[in-house]
Amino acid sequence: MNIPAELFTSNIVAIQILSNFLNGSIPVDIERAQNLNYLNLAENHLSGVLPSTLGNLSNLKTIILHSNKLKGNIPPSICNLTSLEFLHLSNNTFEGRIPQCLGNFSKSLQVLHLKENRLHGPIPSMFMVGWSLDSLNLNTNQFEGTLPRSLENCRQLQVLDVGNNKIKDVFPFWMETLLELSPCLEV
Question: Which residues of 157-170 are buried (b: 16+ CB within 10 A; e: fewer)?
Fold first, then answer.
């Protein structure tokens, strides 16, 4: 079953259709849902790329699209969503680099989960002073280099998972300043 384009009207504020075997792509008509603030289409069989029109939904606060078959780059238009608080795109086949412009969300973005994709390159140094980020999960990608020192600006960070990448770094001394970071033991 594909997502019906008729679903996207200006009256709709939330869409949650998870684990329903939806297939096809996310329609570009999604931009008609101008009042949409919550989108959860996780655990389906959606494929194709994220439509750039998603960036026209200025009220969107939550995007949960994990565990689908989405691919391509994360579109830079996602950075137009200045109220975005929760972005969960894990377990897809996104590739390319994390858009540097995600740093524009310093006051709103609390959760950024991009694990189990094909993202690569260095983790961008995009974490500005005052970031309200609580959880950052970049596990199982192809990130390389070192952890950006700008992560120390995420004073509320509780979860940081960068395992299963190509990061070559010693444990950064500056991480001791992240007082909310939960210790975790991997066995």
Answer: beebbbeebeeeee
